[in-house]
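Colleagues,

Please find the record for the two-part complex below.
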Amino acid sequence: AQSVAQPEDQVNVAEGNPLTVKCTYSVSGNPYLFWYVQYPNRGLQFLLKYITGDNLVKGSYGFEAEFNKSQTSFHLKKPSALVSDSALYFCALEGGTGFQKLVFGTGTRLLVSP
Amino acid sequence: DTEVTQTPKHLVMGMTNKKSLKCEQHMGHRAMYWYKQKAKKPPELMFVYSYEKLSINESVPSRFSPECPNSSLLNLHLHALQPEDSALYLCASRPGQGTNEQFFGPGTRLTVL
């Protein structure tokens, strides 16, 4: 069965510093991987996705993610964090036998301090 | 129009009430989803409609009843809910099966008293 792990409940970073939010996955076959962000009392906003091709994916708001098949990872990165990036981030997987289902990680709260 | 809308934003209901949540999209998407999300947890899939037909029911209790009257509209009918059903209910849509991301609505915050 497919699964997604986000090992950190919270990531703290100072504004202007680079940030990384970690995600690893498990699936049979090729994964479709997504990152979503959720602000308080709001729905999820799509940031970026990896389907195939270039392992470095660029997305919205300056975020990017690197797909690493050997390490089964899809870490989210940003070169310079903003206070407004503080939110809850979800990594999600679609693949294996369930092409209509998104399997979410448990989420990582990102806190960017001024 | 590139968004998913949900009404109402907030809903408080008693355990004997009947209410409905509404979700609408005008992007021509053919797959629509209902999720339930508890605080600080990931969304949990409830139902998937594909081309207006129910294709996935994640063993959701019958007190939740989905309906897809047309390709733009998705309803979730609620009856005899329990306090533990209090949560944020999210609707999402996407063009169809394939590699596309899901577009989420802002959610309905449901409180069951």
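The radius of gyration of chain B is 13 Å.

Comments are welcome before we finalize the supplementary table.
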